[in-house]
Amino acid sequence: MNGDPVARAVALSGLVCRAADQRTLLEVDELQVAQGERIAIIGHNGSGKTTLLRLLSGFTRPAAGSVEVLGRALADPLPAARLRNLRCEVGQVVQGVPLVARLTALENVLIGSLGRVAGWRGWMRCFPAEEVSRAEAALQAVGLQAHAPRRADRLSGGERQKVAIARLLLQRPRLILADEPTAALDPLAATEICRLLAGAARGATLISVVHNPVLLPLLAERVIGLKQGRVAFDLSLAEVGEQELGALYRAGSAVPPADWRAASQSSSTRIDGVTGFTGNSLASQSWR
């Protein structure tokens, strides 16, 4: 891992995060993520995965230690303007997909340009023509161009996640935080969303909370296992085997499949020819 401040996206040191009742939710001695890395965070419910993402997005403050994200120290409250600037550079995809239900798919994608479209234009949703064109291209890239005028509350779960990924393409963040982005999706849809997300993260740092180890090869090159709020292991994907996963999930609420590597290889062959977001290359794929 690169310790150069210029080359790192995230740096944690002596971190302690506590709940309101003073229970320790997360404790990390040292953790660094280099710019451009693809990281998966795994562990059973309550292990601190979501707490970690909330810390990195500035929604939760640590009780002790330092948190640095994209060169900004978050241990102390950032001024409102600097926090807004940070969140323009941090994209998020979460389970439940918080789209604005009454807005169309295209309008939800255009939210990703609000960091560039300020003032009354943003409030009135009066976006410049070039931003609208980029939003339309982003929807085309995820295979939803025909759904641009459809309200978000009339889209399926998988379609809503695609809109969220198209919004990332328009936002162009430096850091993407994905909290179980495939929750409640069937295996084929989950594979598709992972591939689209990995493509949208090209050139950015991607940190994903992953519930199903089968999806790890699609999202990560490095895997961090959390157990009871502590880092149980920090390994390359190739080093993560049944022994590590078994120890991590033992007595937890979820147990990974014993043949997760074989299952992931089978899953990865179900959608051929997709290697990432390269202009309109994804639009030519058949997403069924």
Write the layout of secondary structure elements.
Blueprint: E1 8-18, E2 24-34, E3 38-42, H1 49-56, E4 64-69, E5 72-73, H2 80-88, E6 90-94, H3 105-110, H4 120-123, H5 129-141, H6 157-171, E7 175-179, H7 187-200, E8 205-209, H8 216-219, E9 222-227, E10 230-236, H9 242-249, H10 260-268
Parallel strand pairs: 3-8, 3-9, 6-7, 7-8
Antiparallel strand pairs: 1-2, 1-4, 4-5, 9-10
Helix pairs in contact: 5-6, 6-7
Overall description:
The protein is of the alpha/beta class and 288 residues long. It is built from ten helices and ten strands. Helix 6 (157-171) runs parallel beside helix 7. It is globular, with a radius of gyration of 19 Å.
Short description:
The protein has 288 residues and is α/β, with parallel strands linked by helices.
Features:
alpha/beta; single chain; 31% helix; globular; 288 residues; six-stranded mixed sheet
Strands in their spatial order, largest beta sheet: 6-7-8-3-9-10
Number of helices: 10
CATH architecture term of the largest domain: 3-Layer(aba) Sandwich
What is the name of the CATH topology of the largest domain? Rossmann fold
| Shape label | globular
Tell me which oligomeric state these chains represent.
single chain
CATH superfamily of the largest domain: P-loop containing nucleotide triphosphate hydrolases
Number of strands: 10
Task: Give the CATH level 1 class of the largest domain.
Answer: Alpha Beta
- The Rg value, from CA coordinates, equals 19 Å
Taking the sheet with the most strands, its summary is: 6 strands, mixed
Give me the strand/helix succession: EEEHEEHEHHHHEHEHEEHH
% residues in beta strands: 15-25%
> What's the number of domains?
2
Proportion in helices: 25-40%
Alpha-beta classification: alpha/beta
Distance between the termini: 39 Å
What's the mean pLDDT score?
Answer: 82
User: Which regions have little confidence, pLDDT < 50, spanning 5+ residues?
Assistant: 267-288
